[in-house]
Design a protein that fits this description.
Layout (H helix, E strand, L loop, with lengths): L2 H6 L9 E5 L7 H8 L5 E6 L9 E5 L2 H11 L3 E2 L2 E2 L1 E4 L11
Antiparallel strand pairs: 1-3, 1-6, 2-3, 4-5
């Protein structure tokens, strides 16, 4: 997407640079994740879950919000090792207000 098109594109409020990925095969390596998600733009960081409830999940942080949107649009339902990925935008938890 060129810069002019990006300037005219309004993104939904939940769209951000951080993607939460579920349903990864446990044997997926970080290098494979960089290969799969790197097709959609420069990646700042990938954090892969390694134990307990986090196994089979990852956080992918893109440099650019439009690259993250493109990755979610194309990789939700993508087959990796016989499993279909679930890609969601990370939701920041809000802190409860003090005194309420």
């Amino acid at each position: 997407m060129n810069i002019r098109k990006r300037a005219n594109t309004k993104l939904r409020p939940e769209v951000n640079r951080i993607i939460f990925v579920r349903n990864l095969p446990f044997k997926t390596t970080s290098e494979e994740l960089f290969e799969i998600f790197g097709r959609y733009g420069p990646i700042r960081q990938i954090r892969k879950g390694v134990a307990g409830k986090t196994k089979g999940t990852a956080f992918v942080v893109y440099e650019d919000i439009y690259d993250a949107k493109n990755a979610v649009d194309h990789l939700s339902g993508f087959n990796v090792g016989g499993k279909y990925l679930t890609c969601l935008y990370y939701k920041h938890k809000t802190q409860p207000k003090a005194g309420i």
